[in-house]
Amino acid sequence: MFAHSGTSDSNKRFALERFEPAYLSLHRRGELVARAERALEELADCCACPRNCHVNRLEFNELICRTGRYAIVSSAFAHFGEEDCLRGWRGSGTLFFGGCNLHCVFCQNWDISQQAAGKASTAEEIASLMLALQEQGCHNINLVTPEHVAPQVIEALAVAVPAGLRVPIVYNTSAYDALSSLGLLDGLIDIYMPDFKFWTRESSRRLVKAKDYPERAREAILEMHRQVGDLRFGSDGQARRGLLVRYLVMPGQEEEASAIFRWLADNLSPDTYVNIMEQYRPEYQVKSHGVNNRPEKYSDIDRQPYQAELNAAYEAARKAGLWRFDERCRGSSAQSPAGH
Fold this sequence. Notes:
Blueprint: H1 8-11, H2 23-28, H3 32-41, E1 71-79, H4 84-87, E2 92-97, H5 110-113, E3 119-121, H6 123-136, E4 141-144, H7 150-160, E5 169-173, H8 179-185, E6 191-194, H9 201-207, H10 213-228, E7 232-233, E8 239-248, H11 254-268, E9 273-277, H12 307-320, E10 324-325
Parallel strand pairs: 2-4, 4-5, 5-6, 6-8, 8-9, 9-10
Antiparallel strand pairs: 1-2, 1-3, 7-8
């Protein structure tokens, strides 16, 4: 059994005695296919994410995310580097999607996100991957960087669920999601796992090339929490339903971290489950010998965070009133979680 953070007595109210994946209700009502058809309509004049590109992806056009009609799958495997409450003892069944609607200059997965590496896959192919991961014993299906392919994800679920998919769905996102797409996902996702990267428009414009990121992230996370609530667990310690927010500690971001934690506690709940991640390292354009590198432009983040900065992040979160933390990786060399 894998325990989650906090005292056992306090966490009893976050236990789920009975659980079934949310999508089974839609399946029983015969609504999955109609939901997929509605989702695919978004691709004809694409506003599936906040970029609002207005291209017809059904005709294989693409723009910022470098993805046309079919989602690009870069890899599918049992991931043992995720949070304890997701990876368990059989792994989290991760599907890494190629392409991204953000352009993070520090991206640790830039070869996937910025080069759209992988195979364009049909709904049937993605559904087969989901079912294969379930057959391996994975505790969940973990969709990594799905913001720009939410319609294709829904299309794949409409194939996988009637074929026997029965494990929770984890939506592992940067939080740069469109409310329209999240509305279509309502009732399909069990665990939303958004990053909350930056609080200010200036940092977002400079480092992820989307100045409206803070506003879009706030409204998206509010909607995610409305749908699934605070994170809850089965008796085995595995997450079953709810919101898990990730915050990556970066150099010199103490004030933004404090603002993010205050907002989570005040606007969602002090019971919000948070993973304060410590694995930042200079990559992509920040790294001195990276791709299209401009290290002098990003010299302020061209280092790993100091221990004092990591400690300050935890202190700020606790001061805001948050108390449910994923602390497995503190001070360890554990494999990094799948992220953005």
